[in-house]
What we know:
Largest sheet: 12 strands, mixed
Amino acid sequence: MPLPVMFFNAWVDATETTFGPQHEIVDENIVSFRLEQTEGNSATLELDVRNPKIGLLAPGRKVWMWFSYDSGTGGIVPLFFGRLVGVPTNMLAEVVTLQFIAKPLDFITQKFQLAETLKQLPYYDPIFVDPDKRPYFSSAGSTGDPDVVLEGYSALWHVDRLTGQVTISDIISGEDGTLVFSPTAIPYDSVSIDLGQPPLTSVQVTGDVSWGQTATGTIDFGQRSFDCWNGGSIVSSWPKTGAQLSGGWSVNTGTAVDVYNVQNSAARSLNFHFENREKKHANGDVMSISQSWTEFPSGGHLYISGLEQQAGVIPSEAVLIYNADGSTSNPYSGIDNSGGEFDAQQNIPLHMAYHQTMVMGWLVNTNLVLDYKAGDTRKENVLFTLTADLQSIVTLPDPDEALEQIPFSGADVGVNIDGTPPIADSARNLYFSTDRGQLSLQYLISVARSHILMRARAVNISWQCNFDNAVLFTLRKNASIADDRIPGGVATGKIISYFLTGSGDDGTLFGGCTIGCAIGHDGTVAAVTGTETWVEPNWVDPGWQVMEGQTTALASGDVAYELPIPEPTGLIYPLTKDQVLVDEHIDTSELTDPVLVGTDKARYPATGEVRTYVQFPITAYYLELKAVTGNLFATPQPANVSVLKVPKQIDLEATSI
Length: 657
């Protein structure tokens, strides 16, 4: 038996998207129908009609249909606008089934257009989206996957069954209000409760980002003076301006000045000779003196001196030797020659030779300023666990079902992503502590939140109602049911599916819905300002001050986080001397190459052969720096995340109503 005349159906063109009086006709004899829609899908309409015995998909035929009904006092109400999916499968039967879907031809285009508007931080962060899947809308051709934008929104796509408009709808709270059903509006036996998949209690998230840390700067290593004998090697080996050093260093300014101009000084030789020409001489008279020495006009230091002697008769009086530094000494002091083995009457002339070597001293003034050009790789890993405040539905939850792990491998934040590098300044040693980095963290928390909220709708309640109430169902609404069999006597949830049905055989018309109820405890969280710990209040712009105990709440108001400032690994730019210095010292050692400066050939037992040695002091400057290229620095970044407050849409812990 056909449906009552109160139902209308009209074949139309795809462009007839506005319902009007011209569509209040009956093109097919409908026996029964079922209109339904489930969350995340387009609405479908199944019509059982008298076999029209024509090719429904023949060229030129209209394949779109308006389906409506006469509500009486409310006038004609459109119920569905969609297109025929395919030819009937039971083509030879008297009654054939036609299937329609309320999916607009520009469905994909609409999704891309909407996705473009949803690419907003912190709900969407391209850093953690595969570059090939990042959606981009263009009239010339869109690319990527628009579905990825919903990861942080806790929402699903929604297609209006009348307008074909694509929107998104939250999985907990419907945007178009709540339908309230009292016990009298619901058939008693139609109510059913189903415990769905066990909820997630925790989500562990790790998020990795990396960037090429680049920075330039200058460090002044100061001026020094070296008073030494090896100044020539210091001058020749001192880093020169413009020289490229290893490890990312170069010489901005490098000078070593020979103050005395030693390298251009010429030594001069001097001689002195004295001869005693008297004809009579007393025992011990000085007969001759010969001296020769070398010196530098600009000055020098005496490093080598010595005495060579051959004695026969030891003089009774002191013989003073004048040293190069102006002091005097008596080489015979303390020697007793009385009664010795020597023949005092033997006339052996006294012979003395005095040698002196002058070594030119250097004064070298130096200056050293180095430039650095850093080229390291930075990695930062944020990790946190988001735990939900949920009611229990099982006594022994399966740990594998209650916990989910979500790893995110982020992109290089030092390169342009959507036109700009997220880290902005690649010299930074931390990313998640920056304003942009905190938005990335909020995105990761939002994704974890979405996963928990979807599974938090652990209780499904279904019921039926009269047709006039059922036509109000959409997947952008919540519904509330009162029933003393429900824990707490009432439950509210998001409509996750609905249906409308009618049959001409028995004249029945009704509808029904299923809601998903979140099993939280309700509640909100608020941000905590924290205590300023870096500098005095109001001394720096927002974002630079270090706040101890500060928490930031997401816009949803159900979760907050604290991001402790970690101790960064590696180098922190701009560099200071203390950061990069491995070793710096001046070494004044002695070159122990022996030099013979004198031999005593006296034939008396009080003395023997004597060798005198000297040691030359040398000066060396050592500077060892850390490399600023080729390093890999990894910083773990733990985040403290509050418990997620989940709405209580059903009270499973209620003791009575």
